């Protein structure tokens, strides 16, 4: 088994002597900046003018243009959307890095796929929380944390690993577990996981179940409760105690159905498709497509997004959730992807 590290395994001094620039104040940025500050680290936020800037200032941070924040800092954590990192890096980050500084990322995409080539005289590391930014913040406030992977791409000072670990501790991840990885492993597993399982696999499974029921004439409200709403309750059980805990809690009828029907839905053919997806991630084919899609101003992304938002499951879901006030409201648009 790989060694998972916790609070007691981590030295904090190496980061305490330094100033951290958190560049970006979106989903991850706000969580890193607030958690690091509350863990006792010295944080400045780097942003262009806009909503995020107002939010970071309201949270009491010194907010500077990205170039100035980088100049002041010893450690620069890049928490911009992956698609915008290269441009901001070339214009405002790279020219202002000093020898012996560190540049850090929460996802290895741009470094691994050569969109950012860091200078040879800085440390380069990764701290990738395995959870959404808003939970990085919420769990920290509740005394917990989201686990993180850390990895070192380049170590010029001899301290890169200790810096990465202290950073992970600062955002609360050492409360949950910190595990070593490489930029390659983090990038490939993260892209595969979100495409095949967490995001793509899950939303497609939910939609397919919903469509099968409604096409067979069942009420959309019933199909929504069955295929989407109840998903969270099952996943909570899985999160707390694995598959065994789900199977303990569900009826034996449900468990028998799980055993005999689950492998017919996700079968050898599905696994073949998963292998294809993984191969496209590994070869850089997925990355190339996404980079080009962005260069073309996202024609396919926008078209699919518009179509998806009109799906019946979204319409019926909105109506049903309004009648369940205890269900937390979705994230406001300015909390996520504020540009
Ligand atoms: P986000 O879209 O939520 O926030 C981006 C921030 O960057 C915003 O504050 C925005 O105002 C700012 N910004 C955008 N363009 C800018 C520019 N040109 N100059 C200055 N500031 C600019 O992004 P995010 O989802 O937090 O993602 C940040 C990084 O974290 C990415 O590398 C992503 O892969 C990684 N990550 C995200 C999550 C997640 O939960 N969203 C999880 C793990 C890793
Ligand atoms: Mg500097
Ligand atoms: Mg990801
Ligand atoms: Mg992820
Ligand atoms: Mg049972
Ligand atoms: Mg049931």
TrEMBL record:
UniProt binding sites for Mg(2+) 2: 190, 226, 230
Boundaries of every KARI C-terminal knotted domain copy: 182-327
Involved pathway(s): Amino-acid biosynthesis; L-isoleucine biosynthesis; L-isoleucine from 2-oxobutanoate: step 2/4; Amino-acid biosynthesis; L-valine biosynthesis; L-valine from pyruvate: step 2/4
One Gene Ontology MF term: ketol-acid reductoisomerase activity
Residues the entry annotates as binding NADP(+): 25-28, 48, 52, 133
Coiled coil regions, renumbered to chain: none
Function, as annotated: Involved in the biosynthesis of branched-chain amino acids (BCAA). Catalyzes an alkyl-migration followed by a ketol-acid reduction of (S)-2-acetolactate (S2AL) to yield (R)-2,3-dihydroxy-isovalerate. In the isomerase reaction, S2AL is rearranged via a Mg-dependent methyl migration to produce 3-hydroxy-3-methyl-2-ketobutyrate (HMKB). In the reductase reaction, this 2-ketoacid undergoes a metal-dependent reduction by NADPH to yield (R)-2,3-dihydroxy-isovalerate.
Protein name: Ketol-acid reductoisomerase (NADP(+))
Source lineage: Bacteria, Bacillati, Bacillota, Bacilli, Bacillales
């Amino acid at each position: 088994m790989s060694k998972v590290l916790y609070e007691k395994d981590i030295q904090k001094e190496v980061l305490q002597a330094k100033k951290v620039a958190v560049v970006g104040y979106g989903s991850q940025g706000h969580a890193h900046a607030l958690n690091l500050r509350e863990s006792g680290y010295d944080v400045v936020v780097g942003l262009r003018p806009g909503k995020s800037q107002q939010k970071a200032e309201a949270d009491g941070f010194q907010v500077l243009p990205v170039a100035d924040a980088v100049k002041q800092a010893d450690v620069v954590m890049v928490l911009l959307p992956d698609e915008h990192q290269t441009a901001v890096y070339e214009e405002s980050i790279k020219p202002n890095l000093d020898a012996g500084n560190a540049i850090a990322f929460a996802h290895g995409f741009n470094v691994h796929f050569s969109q950012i080539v860091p200078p040879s005289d800085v440390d380069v590391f990764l701290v990738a929380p395995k959870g959404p930014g808003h939970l990085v913040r919420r769990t920290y406030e509740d005394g917990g944390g989201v686990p993180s992977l850390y990895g070192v791409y380049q170590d010029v000072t001899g301290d890169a690993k200790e810096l990465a670990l202290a950073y992970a501790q600062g955002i609360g991840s050492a409360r949950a577990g910190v595990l070593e990885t490489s930029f390659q492993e983090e990038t490939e597993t993260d892209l595969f996981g979100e495409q095949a399982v967490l995001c793509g696999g899950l939303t497609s499974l939910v939609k397919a179940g919903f469509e099968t029921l409604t096409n067979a004439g069942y009420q959309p409200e019933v199909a929504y409760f069955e295929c989407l709403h109840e998903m969270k309750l099952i996943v909570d059980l899985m999160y707390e105690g694995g598959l065994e805990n789900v199977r303990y809690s569900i009826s034996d009828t449900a468990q028998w159905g799980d055993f005999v029907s689950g492998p017919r839905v996700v079968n050898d053919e599905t696994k073949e498709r998963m292998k294809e997806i993984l191969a496209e991630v590994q070869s850089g084919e997925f990355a190339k497509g996404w980079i080009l899609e962005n260069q073309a101003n996202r024609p396919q992304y926008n078209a699919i997004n518009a179509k998806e938002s009109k799906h019946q499951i979204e319409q019926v879901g909105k109506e049903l959730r309004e009648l369940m006030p205890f269900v937390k409201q979705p994230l406001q648009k300015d909390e996520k992807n504020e540009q």
